Amino acid sequence: MASEGVLLVYGSPLLDIIVRHPSAQKLLQKYGLDANSSVFAQEKHQSLYKDLEEKYGEELQYAAGGTALNAARVVQWVLRVPRVTSFFGGVGRDRNGETLQQMTREAGVHAVFQYTDSMPTGTCVTICTGSNRSMISQQAAANCFTEEHLNVSENWTLVEKAQFFYTVSFSLATSPSVMLRLARHAAETKKTFCLNLSAPFLCGKFKDAMSELLPYVDYLFSNDAEADEFARVHNLNTTDRKSVAAKMAAWEKIRAERDRVVVITQGSDPVIVAKGRNVIEFPVAPVPSEEIADTSGAGDAFVGGFLAQLVCHRPIDECVRCGIHAGSMVLRCAGCTIPHTTDLGWT
């Protein structure tokens, strides 16, 4: 059984705003959005929020979001033990920040936010059209998180209590020093540090910062597109993903006595896992297309399911199986919303 505070997650907390309506296609056309894409909000998107309130109002769905917080919520959902997961991130001192705090508390996550008055709480609008989704993220207060938050004695106590750490490469854009400090602490105290590549463009844009962090990484998560881009950026001289996984696993490591584990998801294709020189594939049972409500959040759910077993010291095959199952269940929901059931349906 996992203990309280065993996992510490750091990332960008966002309030997810989900719209699913036959007329949502018009929003894509108005704001020049692709049906299945993810972009950062620009000036031309600012009136989108007013459109959502005026045209969809009570039909909008809200959820605690952001890729790192999604994974943390899934960990809590799988394990059903309050406060197994602690979470650090930045939010605004506003209504959305209050809503986010309440939702994370209800999910069982111990969220210790750093509040700011200078920016509003970050949001992610997801426009669902059929099985496609278009995501427009606005980081806002999430970008205001600083290392000072770690210096608060109560917060550092949570760091010392944790045995596992998980963070995402999106945070390289805001507080790479926070990620490096947590990673060094994990290495010095022989704990486990996990990183997600998060998005293909991050591999190139933050190549140097990512390269500095990688030697501390014990578990590296990636999807197929991210792995392909990582291989290109770092000149791994192969497009075979199993070979890419093996080379990522063999990357320089501070704690050389422990093999790095690399996990690459490929949608409905097998999950690739490399540990040391060993590479294994795990089959994925495809979800019927008519049952897929939304693909956003499925990758986060996979990581959450994997981490839920990892913090309980389960074998890798069980971690992967739970990740696949959690991902398949979230595929049937709008956004990374947790199914309203007390039965995980996985053993």
TrEMBL record:
Q: Does the keyword Manganese apply?
A: no
Q: What is its main location?
A: nucleus
Compartment(s) where it occurs, according to its Swiss-Prot or TrEMBL record: Nucleus
Query: Where does the record place the catalytic residues?
Result: 300 (proton acceptor)
Which CDD domains does the UniProt entry name for this protein? adenosine_kinase
Please state what the protein is called: Adenosine kinase
Record organism: Littorina saxatilis
Keywords (A to Z) from UniProt? ATP-binding, Kinase, Magnesium, Nucleotide-binding, Nucleus, Purine salvage, Transferase
What this chain does, per the entry, is described as: ATP dependent phosphorylation of adenosine and other related nucleoside analogs to monophosphate derivatives.
One Gene Ontology term, aspect cellular component:
cytosol
Q: What is its EC number?
A: 2.7.1.20
- Reaction it catalyzes: adenosine + ATP = AMP + ADP + H(+)
Could you give a GO molecular-function term held by this entry? Answer: ATP binding
Task: Give the UniProt family note.
Answer: Belongs to the carbohydrate kinase PfkB family.
- By its UniProt entry, which InterPro entries does this protein fall under? Adenokinase, Carboh/pur_kinase_PfkB_CS, PfkB_dom, Ribokinase-like
- The residues the entry assigns to the signal sequence are none
Q: How does it assemble?
A: Monomer.
One Pfam family name is PfkB
The pathway that the record names for this protein is: Purine metabolism; AMP biosynthesis via salvage pathway; AMP from adenosine: step 1/1
Q: Which GO terms describe its biological process?
A: AMP salvage; purine nucleobase metabolic process; purine ribonucleoside salvage
Give the note describing cofactor binding and stoichiometry: Binds 3 Mg(2+) ions per subunit.
Enzyme class, top EC level, equals: transferase
